[in-house]
Amino acid sequence: MSDRNFRILFARTPSGLPVPEDFGRDEVAIPTPADGQFLSRTIWLSLDPYYRNVMKNSPIYGDRLAPGDPMVGETVAQVVQSRHAGFAVGDYVAVRNGWQQYAVSNGAGVRKLDATAAPLSTALGVLGMPGLTGYAGLVYLGEPKPGQTVVVSAATGPVGSTVGQVARLMGARSVGIAGSAAKCDYAVRELGYAACVNYRDGDLRAALKEACPEGIDVYFDNVGGDTLAAVFGNLALGARIVLCGMIEAYSMDRPPAGPFLGPVVGARATIKGLVVYDHMHRLPELQRVVGGWIRDGRFRWREDVADGLEQAPEAFCRLMRGQNFGKALVRVAPERA
Ligand SMILES: NC(=O)c1ccc[n+]([C@@H]2O[C@H](COP(=O)([O-])OP(=O)(O)OC[C@H]3O[C@@H](n4cnc5c(N)ncnc54)[C@H](OP(=O)(O)O)[C@@H]3O)[C@@H](O)[C@H]2O)c1
Q: How far apart are CA 39 and CA 169, in angstroms?
């Protein structure tokens, strides 16, 4: 193992959509673990839309970044040195190493992973934070009933694809909204959506009316903006709207104008805000239920992998432009050293 630690740094808050120049890079000595700490090598780096909000130091996140700090983020890593009684060399862990090849941890908030239970990368996707967001948000806030229509935007991403498949496996009819014909085709063919509407192709409100003739009982919103407004035109009586993410707004300097809320009143609809961290105690449930469906072959996912940590800034910019197709990940190192 070399003694250098390559890192991608936060350089400045982006103006609008992020560009690679918003990031820096450096190489420093690999840190040495103190008593009660372990050192791990990063294998998989998760790229998540919320990093864009961390880059503007949004107060809802615990992370604080100053120029020159390594970028923060979730990773899958392997312990290479340990002075911590709970972690042994060779253990695979889900740990917040950030955008760097090596980091030390005191074990707080670290999850051990069983490399034989599911592919390690799923700990950052369908069996990790995004999967939990889709699962808990749908089951506990959306509360779909068999036969009801569940619509989800960003339908092929890690959150959306979990919502669509869990809804179907709970007996609801799932309808996706996605940004290309290829994504919609994958959503129907591979993920089992009853229909998927490409919002870049014509009148979204009319297309949703056709795909959801009985109206929308549950809308799981990952994007906000015009998509949310189009859904408002198609609500069923008693609809539930789970507000999960507003990716379009993350790269705006000022919040966009809100949609007209009149139809929410007419439909007696309920709007609920979702924060995944309120549901962390349900992670074992996600792993049992969705992990079981994965082992049975009933649940699919897709990954959009960039190779090498130096590719992370461009891959993150692609995610924020909506150009990823599946869970955005960076392969920082091979799973086996
Ligand atoms: N509330 C919480 O606790 C929580 C937790 C995790 C994630 N989230 C949110 O959930 C949403 C989905 O996250 P994810 O991790 O599953 O990622 P993701 O689906 O891979 O997110 C990127 C996708 O968003 C879609 N998108 C729609 N409008 C966009 C726009 N204007 N710019 C860029 N992308 C756009 C694109 O798909 P299409 O081409 O199909 O539109 C793009 O591929 C995000 O908003 C995220 O912030 C919330």
A: 40
pLDDT of residue 262: 66
Q: Please tell me the pTM assigned to this model.
A: 0.93
Gap from CA of 92 to ligand 1 centroid (Å): 27
CA atoms within 13 Å, Cβ hemisphere of 301: 31
Find out whether 160 and 166 touch, Cβ atoms under 8 Å. no
Q: Which residues contact 205 (CB under 8 A, 6 or more apart)?
A: 230, 233, 234
Domains parsed from the chain with CATH numbers: 4-125+301-331 (3.90.180.10), 129-278 (3.40.50.720)
Q: Which residue type sits at 99?
A: W
Ligand 1 pocket: which residues have CB below 6 Å? 48-50, 130, 133, 154, 156-160, 178-179, 183, 222-223, 244-245, 247-248, 274-276, 319-322, 324, 328
Distance from the alpha carbon of residue 226 to the mean position of ligand 1, in angstroms: 14
Angle formed at CA 186 by CA 198 and CA 211, multiple of 5 degrees: 45
| Of 45, 159, 279, 324, best ligand 1 pocket probe by most atoms within 8 Å of the beta carbon | 159
Q: What is the pLDDT of residues 323-333, one digit of tens each?
A: 999 999 999 99
Q: Tell which residue, 90, 8, 114, 85, has the closest CA to residue 41.
A: 90
Residue 98 CA: distances (Å) to CA of 45, 102, 139: 7, 9, 30
